[in-house]
Design a protein that fits this description.
This protein has 14 helices and twelve strands. The protein has 399 residues and is of the alpha/beta class. The chain has a seven-stranded mixed sheet, sandwiched between helices. It has a three-stranded antiparallel sheet with strand order 9-12-11. Strand 5, helix 7 (186-199) and strand 6 (202-206) form a beta-alpha-beta unit.
């Protein structure tokens, strides 16, 4: 067996299930889950119809590179969304469809890390645990860059030493962030690109929450957008990951894409050809219709706005929590240990939240997830309102 498997930590939800298993919730209250970031809004019916129309395609193998029509639809969407020059993304060179961003983030790390050399992979802390697992199984050492309130939940790039940068082969960034919702500003994206040029590492930008924001006039910037503003029109060393899961409420479709540096993408395609992970044809054809439409995405954002406004108005003055810049998460401070908070909230109110310490790692500066919990406002607006009222009641028991 791969000895690096022994380095993997239990997934956060395994820890959460153990924590909840020690208590019993009140039976008279229905369970409300705010722990898992799985969208619950209705998926677009036209996407489901398109998939149904092409179900017969299960009789055909799909190419790993995907349909040209899908890659073209993705290129047009990304160019418009991130203000890229027309035809700056070549569907033949810059884009690969993938079965959701999660598997792509993991596979990409295996393809790009050279474990024959000292390899470090920098990642935000707290973080999406796939980053750590992918780095460890690729034979690299994870380096955790703390994201705290004092830094606006952004990684302090200046705190990373010269010695670490010199051994860094890749950095994960997540913008908007999971679990903080922090958006990396354009200037920091540019700073990172300049660092990647200086130290020759790859930037893997997880942008799966990029379409969940509040101000229609100021969408979060993306890594490829920063490349273009710097004149890096070949997107050298830069790769982005996008998905229909959050944007279009299609987590089960397992449809996304990776885009960026053509040379890196060519090698990643080679890896994926052997990996055996081609997206099914009926999924690809349905995905085209999703990337081509923005109306359902705008409605989706409005639904989240309503939930944030309702929940935050209830929690105001009772829980230390702020509206994030983007995403569908709240990242409140807890007056007691985050694990105790999550366990007692479940025991008293049958509401599940995720302890922040489960999403972060201990560092010399502490664990940036301690005394915080992640709340995903993915349930219906009424359930979110009910959960907020129960949390308010629970807070009153803590004095």
């Amino acid at each position: 067996m791969n000895p690096n498997l022994a380095l993997l930590q239990p997934y956060p939800f395994e820890k959460l299930n153990q924590l909840k298993g020690q208590v019993s919730p009140p039976e008279q209250l229905n369970h409300i889950a705010l722990s898992i970031g799985e969208p619950k809004h209705e998926p677009p019916q036209f996407v489901l119809d398109e998939m149904q129309l092409h179900l017969g395609k299960v009789a055909n193998y799909a190419a790993t590179k995907g349909l040209p029509e899908l890659r073209q639809a993705i290129a047009l969407w990304a160019e418009k969304r991130f203000n890229l020059s027309a035809q700056s993304l070549d569907p033949e060179k810059h884009i690969l469809p993938v079965n959701g961003s999660r598997e792509a983030l993991f596979a990409f790390t295996q393809a790009v890390v050279d474990a024959t050399q000292p390899a470090k992979v920098v990642m935000p802390n707290p973080f999406y645990q796939i980053y750590e697992g992918a780095a460890l199984l690729a034979g690299a050492e994870p380096v955790f860059a703390n994201c705290t309130g004092s830094s606006n939940y952004l990684a302090d790039l200046d705190s990373i030493s010269e010695a670490i940068w010199q051994k860094t082969q890749m950095i994960f960034i997540c913008t908007p962030g999971n679990p903080t919702g922090a958006v990396i500003p354009m200037e920091q994206l540019k700073q990172l690109i300049n660092l990647s040029e200086k130290y020759d590492f790859i930037i893997a930008s997880d942008e799966c929450y990029s379409e969940l924001y509040f101000d229609e006039q100021t969408p979060p910037p993306g890594l490829l957008q920063a490349c273009q503003e710097l004149g890096n029109t070949s997107f050298e060393r830069c790769v982005v990951f996008h998905s229909l899961s959050k944007r279009s409420n299609l987590p089960g479709l397992r449809s996304g894409f990776v885009a960026g540096d053509a040379e890196i993408m060519q090698k990643f395609l080679l890896y994926r050809t052997y990996h055996g992970c081609a997206m099914p044809l009926h999924t690809q054809l349905a995905s085209i219709t999703a990337w081509d439409d923005e109306e359902h995405v705008i409605k989706n954002r409005e639904a989240y706005r309503q939930k944030f406004d309702a929940v935050l108005s209830i929690l105001d003055g009772h829980l230390s929590v702020e509206k994030p810049e983007a995403s569908f998460y709240l990242w409140p401070e807890t007056p007691i240990a985050d694990t105790d908070f999550a366990q007692q909230l479940f025991a008293q109110q049958n509401v599940t939240v995720l302890p922040g310490s489960y999403l972060a790692r201990d560092t010399a500066q502490g664990n940036p997830g301690q005394n915080r919990v992640r709340m995903a406002l993915v349930a219906s607006i009424q359930e979110c309102i009910d959960a907020a009222n129960r949390i308010k009641t629970f807070m009153s028991t803590l004095g």
